[in-house]
User: Fold these one by one.
Assistant:
Number 1:
Amino acid sequence: MRVNVDDAAVDGLAACVDAPPRVYIEAPSHAESLRAWTEQGDSATVRVGGTLVLHAESFSGPWIEVARDSLDADACWVRR
């Protein structure tokens, strides 16, 4: 029998195996935002076939540092 596992599933397993002793979780006031703009400005006019250069920044936080073993096995966390 042959089983195919996608890369994302394998990466997820590897992250749990190498879990550091301290990780970060979202604080109760956690928020995420995305800021996007064009290089040409707010009133950019682009012709068909032209180039529109976009820029974006994402922000998230605040984060709380906790002991990994204080979380449930299925808890979401990130390492830094």
Number 2:
Amino acid sequence: MQQLGKYQQFVTGKAADTQAWILILVALAVGAFFAIFAWASWTVNWAILTPMINISGIALGIVIAIGIVGGMILKTYQKLSKSR
């Protein structure tokens, strides 16, 4: 995990392989979710659509809330570190 104030470095070796496999697996999972969502929308299958809409809404709510709170914390940290 990157720390604040550190320079990014090019990732190689086993760390790069691990990150690549995680990225591929997450992309496949997200792609499968949206493929099923698209199929359920096309066929108007409410038994599948309803829970998927709920999952999407909850996930978006969590991501947006974390983004807002995280942004506030980061901005406060930056202001406090500048004032020293």
Number 3:
Amino acid sequence: MGYQESFVTTTNKKYFNDFLDRIKKLGWGFYDAHLTYPTYIVNVKENVYGEFTKKRIMLKKNKKYVYFTGDRHLQRSANNVLDIADNEETVLNLDIIEFT
């Protein structure tokens, strides 16, 4: 338990709309039950670097991310965010960037 903010995207841009479709399919009820919410879509125009080092790019230029807020549990893995079982394969290949 605890509050967390995460930016989630696909490793390949061509799957981003599929990612959004999966979020919509799960619906508000799924996220509300887990107290975690896909809050908005972020379109990054310039690289965003880590707070403690300017060498690590946290959010990449020209990529879109879904910004999740809420309880930490659901945001611990990309599979959790999309309600994908550990043994279920997905073509989305998600990157999850966590901010606690």
